[in-house]
Amino acid sequence: MFCPRCGSDDEELIEGICKSCFIKEAKIVGMDDDLKITICAHCNSILNGIKWEDSELSDEELVSFAVMENLRAMEHVEDLEISVDILTVRGSNYECLVHAEGKLLGTMVVEEYKVNVKIVKNVCPDCSKFASGYFESVIQIRADNRFPTPEELRVVDEIVRTKLGNLSLKNRMAYVSDVAMLKEGVDYYVGSYKAAKKVAETIKDSLGGVMQESPRLVGRDKSRGKDLYRIWISIRMPDFQRGDFVEYEDHKAEVMSFDGKKIGLKNLESGDSLSVMWRDYGKIKVIARKHDVKTTSVTSKTPTSIQILHPDSYQPVDIDINDEISKLMIGNNVKVLEVEGILYILSKDQD
Ligand SMILES: [Zn+2]
Ligand SMILES: [Zn+2]
């Protein structure tokens, strides 16, 4: 057989022509010379086919990456090396020079191509949800029989900001689309339910209270055949503060502390400590406030009782002794609380 291009008949034919004609005509790489990349103008994620993917690349890196992705090495090519240089940038158009080197049937071949890449800015579905105020969940900050205190609201705000900030590195939907100040508390509208739940748990761990979720059906995703819910997560902080007084089962007690898990109480009569889980919060009733505490003094003492003056009437009152108050001496000032006509000694006054 002879080569139909040059007539030579001393070489084996490749795809119907001789090797030197084949090398002259073949290309080592194939590519489109006009490319388009779609990225989200807000979060920089990139559209790959029909899927949006996170991207940390700069526009220049994206352009080089897109060119490389689009290149195909042709058959019989070995040791291919490619470099991409951006020659000019006009608006969102990048003119690139592709330099390709490789061996074609053992012969070194060098080729250069110009490729134009256009970056199209669009808005990814997550960002467009954000822009339209979309939310999956509402965190409701409430307090029993009162408005949350400024300090509580400050802590909540801080947690929402830092926790969502961290979560948003991995979850584009971890955003607050709205904050509503209501007469009973504050509502945070959150893009992602998962993120909202994590934030709410952190708030509860820090401030205590009772957390409750109530899903509401808002529609149906026909394409996936799934009901769509929005989930309201309420955190109800307690009626009481540290230093207030409550009744729990048959105990009258002072609130000593509370955290995300339990409430620490001190029995007024015996001075014993007890803790109550938040799930039993409903059984706790406030009976007096911190500011109801008064000061009086010890007027006499026997092995079984301590006598103090009633803080309002100045009448002597005898109180059964317990470990907590047994060290009191005549003349000591003490803090007392009156509940339903009964006086309780709380502690020795510090002064
Ligand atoms: Zn030939
Ligand atoms: Zn986006």
UniProtKB/TrEMBL annotation:
Pfam families attached to this UniProt entry: NMD3
Gene Ontology, cellular component aspect: cytoplasm
Signal sequence bounds: none
Nmd3 N-terminal domain span: 3-236
Superkingdom per UniProt: Archaea
MF term (GO), any: ribosomal large subunit binding
Protein name: NMD3 family protein
Organism: Methanobacterium lacus (strain AL-21)
